[in-house]
Amino acid sequence: MTILLLTFSAASAADSDDISVNSQDNLLSAGDTGIESEKIEVELTAKEQYGIYGNKDTNLKVNVLDNDGNNVNSGSVTFVDVFGKNYTVDVKNGVASTNVYVDDTGKFNITCRYDGADDYADAETILPLTVPVANTACTNIIASRYDDTVYFTGNVKSDYTSYPDYDDFEEVTRGIVTVYVDGEKLGTCDLDVNGNYVYVWKTTRNLNGQTINFTGVYSDSNKHFNPSTFSKSFTFPAPKDTKIMAQVTPVDNTRKLVTGDVVDEDGNNVIGGTITVNGKYQIPVDTNGNFKFYITKETPEKAKYEIGVIDFGSKANIRVNSPLMDAIDHTEVTDTLIDLCTQGSPYIKFGNGNGKTLVMIVGTHGGELASQVAGFKLINLLANYGDEIDGTIYIFPTIFPEATANNTRIYNGINLNTVAAENGSISNSIVKFAKSVNAVGLGDFHNTRHDDTDVGITCIFCSEQPTPESATLGKFIVAETGYDIKDYPIAGDPYAGAIEDYANLNYNIPSVTCESLSNHRAIEYGTPEMSLNEMRAFLRYFGFDIDEMIDIKADCCEGLTLSFESPYNYNPSSMTIKCDCERDNPNVASAGEKTLPVAGNPIIVVLLALLVVGVGGLKRRL
Question: Where would you find the membrane-spanning parts of this chain (predicted)?
Fold first, then answer.
């Protein structure tokens, strides 16, 4: 049998003399057969295009037509030496197009080479590319106080509205902002790759009732962007006095329910803080000023948890992120998790191993701090009170340590919420981890800045297909919190590569993305509490109700002292609750007490609500 082997030399595809047919028995050359090949001439055309410095989505395009003006549908075009890199793309419908990374400003001539295929000849043209030094402006300028610190944040953008093919502002990717307050230079801060800046001002100035004038001056040492100056005035109101209102409801012979709220001097509910019971037990106050816990004479069992770390490919010392460290309630548990970030992505696992398994992820974008603060708040709550978790809850508080350490949303060009489908990425690995532990739900918790055109509001992302329970879960969280919803018909459309979408699309794990509103790289009033609301609602959907878990050992007959503190603009306050446990007739109140019937149960409330400043170890927080 004669076996034919056809070989083709790609290096000289246009030369028909190099075509040969080989067999075990003979050798026929093109010259022997008299075959001649004519190539159809091809014309490449490209108009002048504009690029954006620091942008990886600048589009280059050439048209590829034959000598009759018909579209060519084969071969490839190489865009040669585009800022040190070649880009080769196939020709489809007479067009070769690719996105490139732009690493300089100026005017450039890009060589475009068509590699002929089939019956087409090679061709070449020049594509003129202009990358302007754009004007800049700052949007979303905010000054927020958290505890004793002022955070100046904003987003510097470049103005491309006057250039063809662009009608918007683009994020500036490098440079510094020099910060002035009332004409005094405070210092400088850098921009991250999304144009976000944060300047942390720790000041001893009494800002109560005062107005300050903030000025920022943007500059770029490489002169890829034009400098700009922006200013805004901020007034800081004096902190408001607060009052705790609480009530006790008997549940059974061993357990009583304590509920209440905290209001400011105007009668408005506070937007967050902590109630400390008898100087020992800490209870969160939510964004509606509410709190709830149970008191029991028996000592609750200790919560069961396991701490570990997984090396998904990122590790760093996140203690260098001072805005995050200043906002976390540091405990032995949280500090252990923080230190494990130098080895990878830490996690804590709660529960008895029975029932449902959940995975909760925070820090997908390292510069989104408020959700990470909320994640550590949740961990402290479950570590203190999560002794009755009939199931398993995994919490990853900082999934991308390098991004958190650098206080940036994207680190080293990696946006974890666009690469979940890529094998080996952190986001891909975390979804596969959720699958490996048979998770029945996955929550990814984020922050969105005020002027974000894609989000820009506190909301829940979910989808109807192919995992309908994603939408059911999202709608439940919305009903519990009152936040907005972004419910999409199909996961991954219009946004591809998100952790939530990949879990819904590939593994049918009901998943949501929860956003709370806060500028990146800083923490704003109430935003950690909003994110914590989303986390608590997520858990409640699957049957884990934190409000029902908080049991503390205390004797209401001897009295409970409740103390309120907040990192926001509130003065601390305290009150004492004392139940008269000796009376046979609970409807008769003793001096200083008032009995209120609720659902048939007598409730004894002490009217004494002391407004204190600097008393009992509490400090005034501005």
Answer: 599-618
